[in-house]
Design goal:
The protein is an alpha+beta fold. 24% of the residues lie in helices and 34% in strands.
């Protein structure tokens, strides 16, 4: 007949065990905090990236019309001023014209212009509001919102552009965020009036 020994297993106890237990809880809490912070940062970064992507896709101008003021004085008339009527594309957030660039070239001269609210010159374009929808903030901030229409004026002569008959012109309107708006047109072969449609 075999003897069966009853073994009593005793748990660890005492101040040392308590310290180890508390240390394990603290380590787990720190690890959980780090994971939560990391997840929060990733979420914030993902939201920011998404917002930037939406801005890049949905922000921009639509060109309504391009015309030119013609100087008929010289033997070969030229378009001295280019006027561009623009609005915002559907879904575009507001655009501050202070952050907009315009690149324009006649094939031999290329200029980049920034906004000046008072006048157009060799390095600046200017603009006036034709329709300022609520919130009406054009006069104070030069910010375009949905429904607004502005007329941009470029002093082609001051910028060194030669826009004579049959000149090929390309331009881009570049917002700070979003899609540049591109247009290409040719000056008519004959310039006999003070104003001409270009696009």
């Amino acid at each position: 007949m075999k003897k069966v020994w009853n073994r009593k297993e005793e748990g660890e106890f005492g101040i040392g065990t308590l310290i180890i237990f508390i240390a394990m809880i603290i380590v787990a809490a720190v690890a959980a905090t780090v994971l939560i912070q990391t997840a929060y940062q990733l979420q914030q970064q993902a939201e920011e990236t998404g917002n930037i992507a939406i801005q890049d896709v949905a922000t921009g101008f639509k060109i309504i019309h391009i015309g030119g003021l013609v100087n008929l004085t010289p033997a070969t008339p030229n378009v001295d001023t280019v006027e561009i009527k623009v609005g915002l594309i559907a879904g575009s957030p507001a655009i501050d014209l202070d952050n907009v660039l315009i690149e324009i070239t006649d094939g031999s001269t290329d200029v980049t212009l920034t906004f000046n609210p008072t006048s157009a010159d060799a390095t600046h374009f200017t603009a006036v509001s034709l329709r300022d929808m609520p919130p009406q903030n054009w006069n104070n901030q030069h910010v375009m919102t949905q429904g607004d229409i502005i007329k941009i004026s470029i002093d082609a002569k001051a910028a060194g552009l030669s826009l004579g008959p049959q000149s090929e012109v390309t331009l881009q309107i570049i917002p700070k965020h979003g899609v540049p708006t591109y247009a290409a047109f040719m000056v008519p072969a004959t310039l006999t009036t003070n104003y001409v449609d270009l696009y």
